[in-house]
Design goal:
mainly alpha; about 0% strand; about 130 residues
């Protein structure tokens, strides 16, 4: 049975966007702990507003289908960078979890690249 491309694109955007919107808001509500987490990995906490903007802004853009190709590219880059910075500690305790998170980030980046290549579908504010 063929899948309706525009409907599938809408559902995919909703699912992908929910991830980034949730974690963007989580960074706002847990600002100090999010900044501390970044600093523990050698990044300045001053970058947290940028991370929130990318996650929350990009997630909302994808949800609405507003400049979603650009938002998808930005979030794909974000996923790859966060995988490389935060999820490469595969040895020792928690190594399996880090590997899983690394691979999930790369998988989400792949889905975002498909969105960037194929566009948001018919049910979007703009392509």
């Amino acid at each position: 049975m063929p899948l309706n491309h525009d409907l599938a694109s809408l559902v995919a955007r909703l699912l992908i966007a929910s991830l980034f919107i949730l974690f963007g808001f989580e960074k706002i509500t847990g600002y100090a702990s999010s900044a501390g987490y970044m600093e523990a990995y050698g990044l300045p906490g001053a970058l947290l507003p940028l991370a929130i903007l990318v996650e929350l802004g990009g997630g909302i853009a994808i949800l609405l289908g507003l400049f979603s190709r650009w938002a998808a590219l930005a979030l794909a880059g974000f996923c790859i960078v966060t995988a490389l910075v935060f999820h490469t500690g595969w040895s020792g305790d928690g190594g399996q979890g880090q590997l899983i998170n690394f691979m999930k980030n790369l998988g989400v980046a792949g889905g975002l690249l498909l969105l960037a290549a194929n566009g948001p579908g018919k049910y979007a504010v703009t392509d």
